[in-house]
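Retry 2 of 3 after timeout on previous attempt. Resubmitting structure tokens to design endpoint.
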């Protein structure tokens, strides 16, 4: 017992001297996290890594001083494990931090850790994006090697969104990295298709396409400014719907109702031909409407069920946004333009 007491006294004296030298030279106090052994909130490796990062931040390079600081932070069963190691190995000297880590690490391996890890992986759930879920799984796994790829994929699918689980079941990857690559590639494409379907459903529902009329900025007819830059991408995106690039973002606008028409009109965009630069009142293109058969037809109320003459609006022929003439199966006849922009 006397030998143990002398050994502990020598350790404490060395540590105290090292800390006094450190504080005297830098004027700062190094505060390292404590480690209590198996059952601690962080692993021995994580604790060691944090301490080494702090040593680097304080520009401490002296290995003996660093080892002394590490010993000082051991508490409870961790301190007992260090004392036991020194008693059983009197010839072993912990000269540097690497030896300190290699000699003591085996004392702090939790035999129940694999079971605890598996339980945590089973409780993991995808509540956000796919990348967040992958990151959370990687943080739990750390550098743990005692699990096969097949079991890791199995546990990974526990909290994964069903659509990604279906992809993995279909592809049946052999390695975990292959599984990540598969769902990253196919998952992105799937999300894009779902987003496109959502847009199409929103277009069919006129209420979903409503725009807050209070947020519309009314511009002067003569001296307007392009606060919003409209570019027509597709004039037949869907029934009564134009697809625009508004300040770089693709936005479909439904013009069958009052809200969409008012929005375009206030931003100097024609809701008849879809072109920016003029309003509907100044447009000389044929008014058209989408019929129930999936094609476009001329407005019968305006033209008395008569097809317009061939020379209608012929002076404006040639615009790249021409509507199609479904009467004669001619893609560009009788199409016309809005005013020059």
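Retry 2 succeeded. Sequence:
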């Amino acid at each position: 017992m006397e030998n143990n007491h002398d050994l502990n006294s020598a350790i404490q004296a060395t540590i105290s001297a090292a800390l006094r030298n450190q504080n005297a030279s830098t004027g700062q106090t190094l505060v390292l996290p404590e480690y209590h052994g198996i059952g601690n909130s962080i692993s021995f490796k994580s604790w060691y890594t944090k301490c080494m990062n702090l040593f680097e931040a304080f520009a401490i390079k002296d290995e003996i001083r660093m080892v002394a600081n590490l010993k000082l932070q051991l508490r409870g069963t961790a301190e007992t494990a260090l004392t036991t190691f020194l008693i059983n190995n009197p010839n072993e000297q912990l000269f540097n931090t690497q030896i300190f880590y290699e000699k003591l690490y085996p004392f702090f391996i939790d035999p129940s850790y694999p079971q605890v890890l598996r339980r945590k992986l089973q409780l993991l759930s995808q509540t956000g994006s796919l990348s967040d879920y992958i990151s959370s799984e990687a943080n739990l796994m750390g550098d743990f090697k005692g699990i096969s790829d097949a079991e890791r994929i199995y546990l990974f699918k526990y909290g994964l969104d069903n659509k990604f689980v279906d992809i993995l079941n279909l592809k049946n990857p052999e390695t975990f990295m292959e599984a990540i690559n598969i769902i990253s590639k196919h998952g992105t494409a799937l999300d894009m298709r779902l987003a496109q379907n959502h847009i199409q459903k929103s277009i069919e529902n006129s209420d979903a396409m409503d725009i807050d009329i209070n947020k519309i900025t009314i511009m002067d007819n003569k001296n307007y400014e392009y606060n919003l830059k409209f570019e027509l991408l597709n004039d037949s995106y869907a029934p009564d719907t134009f697809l625009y690039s508004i300040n770089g973002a693709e936005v479909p606008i439904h013009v069958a109702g009052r809200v969409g028409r008012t929005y375009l009109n206030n931003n100097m965009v024609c809701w008849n031909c879809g072109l920016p630069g003029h309003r509907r009142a100044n447009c000389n293109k044929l008014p058209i409407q989408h019929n129930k058969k999936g094609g476009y037809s001329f407005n019968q109320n305006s033209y008395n069920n008569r097809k317009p003459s061939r020379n209608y609006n012929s002076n404006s022929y040639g615009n790249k946004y021409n509507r199609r003439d479904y009467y004669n199966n001619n893609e560009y006849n009788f199409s016309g333009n809005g005013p020059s922009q």
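Attempt log closed. The two ends are 98 Å apart (CA to CA).
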